[in-house]
Amino acid sequence: ELTSIVDFRQGPALDAIVFPNTPPRLLWSSSTTAEVPTFAWNVNVHYGDVQNNADKLSTTWSIVRCVRGDP
Known about the structure:
Blueprint: E1 26-32, E2 39-44, E3 50-55, E4 63-64
Parallel strand pairs: 1-4
Antiparallel strand pairs: 1-2, 2-3
């Protein structure tokens, strides 16, 4: 669901008009990976990189953006 708000053709990859004041950091998803259940999917909103290596149990501060899929 996070990739639905990312424009991979531009940098920053998140529309600053629609999502103002979003720092260029990782956005975490609540979806975990199948391989490592403590890892979550995340998107780097500055570059548009999609990764699955963010440890949800980490003490590192990250941003959460609420999105929902199509009904």
